[in-house]
């Protein structure tokens, strides 16, 4: 395979939460929940997927990772390359934690590393945004931290904000899937000037609060009128949690991406963590929804290569390699 520098690459990719309330399609943050992806040179294409729900995904050339990697190879002037793909993901599918974004980013970073980093992070970000259709999730998974960005179909300028050390999150993941397409279909075609002005103010305040570390402003800054009120009917208990989470110790709460996961921002020094988790669990239980809660911290690093080799074969099986990677 001409132009292939590393015949095996393993990448670790963080999950992400998008919108953060008012920052619709513009704000994203990486979270400490991960997927691992290995790409290797192969004689014929093989796809091996591990993790809950991964059995639903294609294991041939229709696989998203395969298609994205081939697009990057084509951009570099290479013909279609047979690949061995192995992926393990902790990130639940179609739950609003950036599972598709992590696959896109992982494929781009791994394929780029195979080529000896032919493309810059900015170029990878642009490709990922073009594939995903919006920059929030892919930007966070690729670059880590909090990403503020925009996309006009041509350019995707961004600024990375380093989250405050005290910032922690609690996510509650309902045990049902909600497709982004269905969640977007719930949104109106037009908004009032008052609602648009409301969201501009809140998203501007939220970015300033996160950039300056003034976490006490998050409560007001995370309010939204653009997407959350219209999606609430799709997620039992959502409105109640968003309205009352601050009464149980949260700095603020939002729908994570298109949902159904909900996310609460918390000061890590808070003594109300147990109370908040109990409140969110009991609210979902009262609605008849089984759900899982996870305490997650912001991931500061984004996608990173944890293994690379000029050879297509290594000593450890993929699952053993990532269990012992220690990152």
Brief summary:
The protein has 327 residues and is α+β, with helices and mostly antiparallel strands. It has helices at 64-75, 99-114, 121-132, 136-143, 180-185, 193-212, 218-221, 228-231, 238-244, 273-286, 318-323, and strands at residues 8-18, 27-41, 46-50, 83-89, 146-149, 158-161, 167-174, 252-255, 262-267, 291-296, 304-309. It has two domains: 8-162 and 300-323, 2-Layer Sandwich (Ribosomal Protein S5, domain 2), CATH 3.30.230.10; 167-296, GHMP kinase, C-terminal domain (Alpha-Beta Plaits, 2-Layer Sandwich), CATH 3.30.70.890.
Could you please describe the fold and organization of this structure?
With 327 residues, this protein is of the alpha+beta class. Strand 8 (252-255) and strand 9 form a beta hairpin. It has two domains: 8-162 and 300-323, Ribosomal Protein S5, domain 2, CATH 3.30.230.10; 167-296, GHMP kinase, C-terminal domain (Alpha-Beta Plaits, 2-Layer Sandwich). The model has no long low-confidence stretch (mean pLDDT 93). Strands 1, 2, 3, 4, 5, 6 and 11 form a seven-stranded mixed β-sheet that branches. Strands 8-9-7-10 form a four-stranded antiparallel β-sheet. Helices cover 33% and strands 23% of the residues.
Strand content: 15-25%
Tell me the series of helices and strands, N- to C-terminal: EEEHEHHHEEEHHHHHEEHEEH
Count of beta strands: 11
- Low-confidence residue ranges: none
Distance between the termini: 30 Å
Average pLDDT over all residues: 93
Helix and strand composition category:
alpha+beta
Proportion of helical residues: 25-40%
CATH class of the largest domain: Alpha Beta
């Amino acid at each position: 395979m001409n132009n292939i520098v590393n015949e095996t690459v393993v990448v670790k990719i963080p999950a992400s939460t998008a919108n953060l309330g008012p920052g619709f399609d513009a704000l994203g943050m990486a979270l400490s929940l991960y997927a691992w992806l290995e790409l290797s040179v192969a004689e014929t294409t093989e796809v091996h997927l591990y993790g809950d729900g991964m059995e639903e995904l294609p294991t041939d050339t229709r696989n998203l990772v395969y298609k994205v990697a081939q697009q990057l190879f084509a951009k570099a002037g290479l013909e279609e390359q047979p690949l061995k793909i192995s992926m393990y993901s902790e990130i639940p599918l179609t739950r609003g934690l950036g599972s598709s974004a992590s696959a896109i980013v992982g494929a781009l970073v791994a394929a780029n590393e195979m080529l000896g980093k032919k493309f810059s992070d900015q170029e990878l970000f642009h490709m990922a945004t073009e594939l995903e259709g919006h920059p929030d999730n892919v930007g966070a998974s690729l670059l880590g931290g909090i990403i503020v960005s925009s996309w006009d179909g041509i350019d995707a300028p961004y600024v990375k904000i380093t989250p405050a050390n005290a910032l922690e999150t609690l996510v509650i993941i309902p045990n049902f899937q909600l497709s982004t397409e269905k969640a977007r279909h719930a949104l109106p075609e037009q908004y009032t000037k008052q609602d648009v002005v409301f969201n501009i103010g809140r998203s501007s305040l939220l970015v300033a609060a996160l950039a300056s570390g003034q976490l006490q402003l998050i409560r007001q800054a995370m309010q939204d009128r653009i997407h959350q009120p219209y999606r609430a009917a799709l997620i039992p208990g959502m409105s109640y949690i968003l309205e009352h989470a601050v009464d149980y110790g949260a700095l603020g709460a939002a729908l994570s991406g298109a949902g159904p996961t909900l996310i609460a921002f918390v000061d890590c020094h808070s003594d109300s963590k147990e109370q908040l988790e109990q409140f969110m669990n009991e609210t979902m239980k009262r609605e008849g929804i089984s759900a899982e809660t996870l305490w997650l911290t912001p991931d500061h690093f984004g996608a990173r290569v944890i293994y690379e080799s000029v050879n297509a074969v290594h000593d450890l099986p993929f699952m053993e390699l990532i269990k012992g990677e220690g990152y």
